[in-house]
Amino acid sequence: MPDTTITLDVFRFQPDGGGHARRSTDGPTFKAYRVPYHEHWVVLDALNWIKDELDGTLSYRWSCRMGVCGSCGMMVNGVPKLTCAAFLKDYYPGTIRVEPLTYFAVERDLIVDMDGFLGKLKSVKPWLIRENEKPVDEGEYLQSPNELASFKQYSMCINCLLCYAACPVVGAEEDFIGPAALAIAQRYNLDSRDQGAAERADALSADEGAWGCTFVGECSEVCPKNVDPAGAIQRVKVDNVKDWYRKLLMPWGHR
Amino acid sequence: MADAIQHDILIIGGGGAGLRAAIAVAENDPDLSVALVSKVYPMRSHTVAAEGGAAGVVKDNDSFAAHCSDTISGADWLADQDAVEVFVAEAPGELTQLEHWGCPWSREPSGHVAVRPFGGMEQERTWFAADKTGFHMLHALYQTSLKYEGRIRFYDEWFATKLLVEDGRCQGVVAIELRTGLMHTLAARAVIMCTGGAGRIFAFTTNGAIKTGDGMALAYRAGVPLKDMEFVQYHPTGLPGTGILITEAARSEGGILVNKHGDRYLKDYDLGSPLDVTDPRHPQKRAMELGPRDRLSQAFVKEHEKGNTIDSPFGDVVHLDIRHLSAKKIRLKLPFVRELAMNYAGIDPIREPIPVRPVVHYMMGGIHTDIHGATPLPGLFAAGECACVSINGANRLGSNSLTELLVFGARAGASAAAFAREHETVHIAALDTQADDERRRIREEFLTKDGGTERLAALRSELFNAMEQGAGIYRTEESLRQTYRTVESLHERYRNLQIDDHSNCYNTELTAALELRNMLDVAEALLHSALERKESRGSHQRTDHPARDDSKYLKHTLAYRRDDGPPRIKYQDVVITKWPPGKRVYGAEASEAATGC
Ligand SMILES: Cc1cc2nc3c(=O)[nH]c(=O)nc-3n(C[C@H](O)[C@H](O)[C@H](O)COP(=O)(O)OP(=O)(O)OC[C@H]3O[C@@H](n4cnc5c(N)ncnc54)[C@H](O)[C@@H]3O)c2cc1C
Ligand code: SF4
Ligand code: FES
Question: Structure pTM?
Answer without folding.
Answer: 0.96
